[in-house]
Structures are given as structure tokens and as C-alpha cells.
Amino acid sequence: MTVLLSTAYLPPISYISGCVREEELLIERFETYPKQTFRNHCRIYGPNGLQTLSIPVIKVNGNHTLTRDIRIASTPWQRLHWRSIETAYNNSPFFMYYKDEFEKVFDEQFDFLLDLNTRLLQIIFNILRIEKKTSYTEQFMKFPANMKDCRESSSKKKALPSDHLSAYTQVFSPKHGFISDLSIIDLIFNLGPETGDYLN
Known about the structure:
Elements: E1 2-5, H1 13-21, E2 24-27, E3 41-46, E4 49-54, E5 57-58, E6 71-72, H2 77-89, H3 95-103, H4 113-128, E7 133-136, E8 148-149, H5 173-176, H6 184-191, H7 195-199
Parallel strand pairs: 1-2, 1-8, 2-7
Antiparallel strand pairs: 3-4, 5-6
């Protein structure tokens, strides 16, 4: 089945898990961009516990801006985000193995949020050896037919179900306990090649 998803910045584990289970992915471009979602936020596990990283964005048409038109603000957010990721995962078992794949993206300049998220999703799929037919919407469909509509799952309040996600060892879990459904990078840096088995 085809699943209709919003774009997401370093998506939650439940988002990627949902991708694995479906045959085709359709990414929404023509929705009116909502705020406070995983479209430009991700959650990682830092030394002090749960940490949210947020990309500063510009709504070129105010509250009527479409997702495809959301621009990334010219601030040093990339350096701050990568520094936070390094601090969080430098001592994880597989950070050194995968870090170059992600770090190079944080050295590039992206004008549009959708382009950045697409690049990161490609890297994630490549690492996990996930091959999915992925396309992008050509118009907004309020009630899409013959597909699973999971666009609202990028809202922090309406995330995809994560109760099927079992605990695994995280760098700071001895200090703060296990935190479920973080960004997929938490799983990749902690489980490495076993990430695919976990998602399945």
C-alpha cells in the first residue's frame, strides 16, 4: 500500500518503521505548513535527557505558506545542531562509523526545508538498505483515496504508534532511563547494523 507522509527532519523511529512496512511512499508538498511538528524538529538523547533540535524556518507567505515553499533561515543552526548531535552520540557504539554520512549534510547550505529533509531521508534509507519507491504530491488531497494518510503523524501530539518499539541500550539510559521514539539517528548510532532487524 502507498502511505502519504509529511516531510520530517531526521524523522522519529516510528516514522521510519512505518516506511519499512509500506510498499510506496508519497511525501506531501502542498499542505499549508503547520508549526510545532517533526517537519522541522527532531528529538535526540543528550547528556541532560531529551533534547529537541529545531530548524529555524521562514514562511514566505505567512500562515498560508505551502510546505514546498518553506525556506530555511540564514542562522548558524547547522553548526549548533551538529555540535549537539556529537555531544549526544560521540560515545555511542556506531557514531564514528556513520557520522561522516550525516556531518557532510550539515556542511551544505539548503534554501528549502523539503530539500534538506529529502537528502537526510535518502542517507537514512541508504544506511538501512531500504529501497522504497518514493514520490511527491502534485496537489493537495484533503481525503486521499487508496492510500494510508499519515500526514498528521508528524505532529508531536499525533505521532505514529510507538508502543511496539522495544527498549534498547542508549548512551545516557543508565542516567535518565530509556526514552522511546527519538530520531532514527539515535537507533542508528546505538544499534548500527542491527537497526534494520529492530525496525522489522
